[in-house]
TrEMBL record:
This is 1-deoxy-D-xylulose-5-phosphate synthase. Pathway: Metabolic intermediate biosynthesis; 1-deoxy-D-xylulose 5-phosphate biosynthesis; 1-deoxy-D-xylulose 5-phosphate from D-glyceraldehyde 3-phosphate and pyruvate: step 1/1. The keyword Magnesium applies. Keywords: Isoprene biosynthesis, Magnesium, Metal-binding, Thiamine biosynthesis, Thiamine pyrophosphate, Transferase. It comes from Adlercreutzia wanghongyangiae. Belongs to the transketolase family. DXPS subfamily. One of its GO terms (molecular function) is 1-deoxy-D-xylulose-5-phosphate synthase activity. Thiamine diphosphate binds at residues 76, 117-119, 149-150, 177, 289, 371.
Length: 625
């Protein structure tokens, strides 16, 4: 690969202004080399970022940043933006502990507008920025860059509805690569496909001219332009999508998202418009790096890899992941029970559902990036007599808390919430840590929740959740499981019953989920100090095992351990039970304090939070003094 040269001279987007289209294209290829060089070491969202390079170079060469605002949806495609906005050196620390984020982050750079990471929010943020601009009487441009899959999320639709009505001037760059993490799904995706396949540009252009002559909201943006610009734009914009145009949003014909000259031509026009405009840009995920082009799903989010082959560089895993165990267990449940239906919200691979989808295609539902739809639909499936399992990442389930409460819990619907990535996830950082689920599940009447401590417990937790009436959630973490032996057939766990995994009279460690492993290690350390710990795998976050808590109160200290926020979490639940029982034993709840946790290896984050065995032992020693 060539040594980057133009990139060396770029300190901010202002430096792009002197470059020709040809030089910008060379710069784009240098940026791609830089992205590959860094992510081959750090890992990251390679395919999306490579696909968006030309869009970002073209766009930022036209803007006056940071005055003009670019809102990146999810932010996983924003690496070129990072490299153009003074973070070239820091880029080497991408997604590492203490390094720069894999998403946009305003505390990292004035060029970053919002804390991205969750899909489909960019248009709402953009409408807010445009409204604020209107109220202030200022003139900065507002642009949102959003992918085809994220555009189908409910929030994005709600923002389209608002901006079309208000005719807020802002530009949406639709980065259409026909992919979500895997192949995109849904009717909007089909609509975009039809547009791409539509060859009748001439007729469409003519009908747009007629529409413009007739006036109406769609033409308002054009009418604000000067005569020459209006003429040029007429040539480029066609009424090819009744959907957007009916909403009052001007839409361009699909344009080549890897042609910087074409991108700049069109963007420079729509940036002058006086109403909302959508630029339909067709890109290829992984553009410029063959292994990512060949397998964009593997390169959506990847760990370190060998640049020459694209092969992942990873340590051989000793055990399967929790996700893999869940996927196999659910397929097994479905084989025994024809009512089981699995739902994913665009995370088939991430939630371990590929086997299920292949074996039971008619009972597999991918709603796209639409967690509210996933949970609302689960409620409907349950009302129709089925046993839906909504398999969602804990952090994305936050989108559907209302549907969980009103549509599932209130009617006591037989819905299973399988919350993957519960707890700290590592390199994705604060937007992706699944640390709130025990709070939002615990607070809701009728809800029950399990926190399995290993993969055998996970299989039994799933079996239990499917066997019980009413809504049941289970939470399990990202990554390798503990190496427990899986049962031939999972058992139904008794509701609200914990299990003692180590006996001891001095201290009771009441642990939830994988904190049981840390508790066992802490107990080992404390034995050396003559402190004997009882370790309890609490199993149930709700209902809590009150007998086990009463038993714990007979020791000298009760410590609860959870991989979630302390406030409103399981440990606070235990403290409430102790108080109700009139216990006087000192008790402390360990978990995540009232702060957002950064990115980095989970073991490092655990140590920082005092949640590893050492940290737990230190707390116990201090409390017993
Ligand atoms: C609310 C939410 N659900 C799911 C995800 C996981 N996720 C991250 S990127 C992505 C696919 C995005 O596809 P698209 O918007 O088309 O962008 P592309 O990756 O194709 O560039 C998904 C499902 C998320 N970040 N946020
Ligand atoms: C950007 C995004 O939300 C996903 O790509 C996420 O990074 C996936 O995380 P996992 O690696 O845990 O599946
Ligand atoms: Mg896409």
């Amino acid at each position: 690969m060539d040594v980057p040269r133009i990139l060396d001279a770029i300190n901010s987007p202002a430096d792009l202004k002197v470059l020709t289209n040809e030089e910008l294209a060379i710069l784009a290829s240098e940026i791609r080399q830089e992205i590959v060089a860094t992510t081959s070491v750090t890992g990251g969202h390679v395919a999306s970022s490579l696909g968006a390079v030309d869009i970002i170079v073209a766009l930022e060469s036209l803007l006056d940043m940071p005055r003009d605002r670019v809102v990146f949806d999810v932010g996983h495609q924003s690496y070129a933006h990072k490299l153009l906005t003074g973070r070239r050196e820091a880029f080497k620390t991408l997604r590492t502990y203490g390094g720069i984020s894999g998403f946009t982050k305003p505390t990292e750079s004035v060029y970053d507008v919002h804390f991205s990471g969750h899909a489909s929010d960019s248009l709402s943020i953009a409408t807010g920025l445009a409204k604020a601009r209107q109220l202030k009487g200022t003139h900065e441009k507002v642009v949102a860059v959003i992918g085809d899959a994220s555009l189908a999320g409910g929030m994005a639709f709600e923002a389209l509805n608002y901006m079309g009505n208000e005719q807020l001037p802002l530009v949406i760059i639709l980065n259409d690569n026909e992919m979500s993490i895997s192949r995109n799904v849904g009717a909007l995706m089909k609509h975009l496909g039809n547009i791409r396949a539509n060859n009748h540009y001439r007729e469409a252009r003519e009908s747009l001219q007629e529409a413009m002559e007739a006036g109406g909201p769609v033409t308002r943006g054009f009418l604000s332009l000067g005569k020459n610009m209006k003429e040029s734009l007429k040539q480029m914009v066609i009424p090819h999508s009744m959907l957007f145009e009916a909403l009052g949003i001007v839409c361009t014909a699909p344009i080549d998202g890897h042609n910087i000259a074409e991108l700049r031509d069109i963007l420079s026009l729509v940036l002058e418009m006086d109403g909302p405009a959508l630029v339909h840009v067709v890109t290829r995920k992984g553009e410029g790096y063959e292994p990512a082009r060949r397998d964009p799903e593997a390169f959506h989010g990847t760990g370190p890899y060998d640049i020459a082959t694209g092969n992942a560089i990873k340590k051989a895993a000793k055990h399967p992941t929790y996700t893999e165990v869940f996927g196999a267990a659910l397929a097994d449940e479905a084989a025994h029970d024809a009512d089981v239906v699995a739902i994913t919200a665009a995370m088939t691979g991430g939630t371990g559902l590929k086997t299920f989808a292949a074996e039971f295609p008619e009972r597999f539902v991918d709603v796209g990036i639409a967690e509210e739809q996933a949970v609302g639909m689960a409620a409907g499936l349950a009302a129709g007599g089925k046993k839906p399992v909504a398999a969602l990442y804990s952090t994305f389930m936050q989108r559907a808390v209302d549907q969980m409460i009103i549509d599932c819990a209130l009617p006591d619907a037989n819905v299973v919430f399988a919350l993957d990535r519960a707890g700290l996830v590592g390199d994705d950082g604060p937007t992706h840590h699944g640390v709130f689920d025990m709070v939002y599940m615990r607070m809701v009447p009728h809800m029950r929740m399990l926190a399995p401590s290993d993969e055998a417990e996970l299989a039994c937790a799933l079996h239990t959740a499917l066997a019980l009436p009413g809504p049941v959630a289970l939470r399990y973490p990202r990554g390798e499981a503990e190496g427990a032996v899986l049962p031939d057939r999972p058992e139904v766990l008794e509701v609200g019953k914990s299990r003692v995994v180590r006996a001891g009279d001095d201290v009771a460690l009441l642990a939830f989920g994988r904190m049981v492993g840390q508790a066992k290690k802490a107990a080992e350390l404390l034995t050396a100090d003559g402190i004997e710990c009882r370790v309890v795998d609490m199993r149930w976050v709700k209902p809590l095992d009150e007998e086990a808590i009463a038993e714990a109160a007979r020791t000298r200290l009760v410590v609860t351990l959870e991989e979630g926020v302390i406030s409103g979490g399981a440990g606070e639940g235990v403290l409430e039970v102790l108080a109700r029982q009139g216990a006087t034993v000192p008790a402390v709840a360990l978990g995540i304090p009232d702060q957002f946790v950064g990115q980095g290896p989970v073991s490092q984050l655990f140590a920082d939070l005092g949640l590893d065995a050492e940290g737990i032992a230190t707390t116990v020693r201090a409390r017993l003094k």
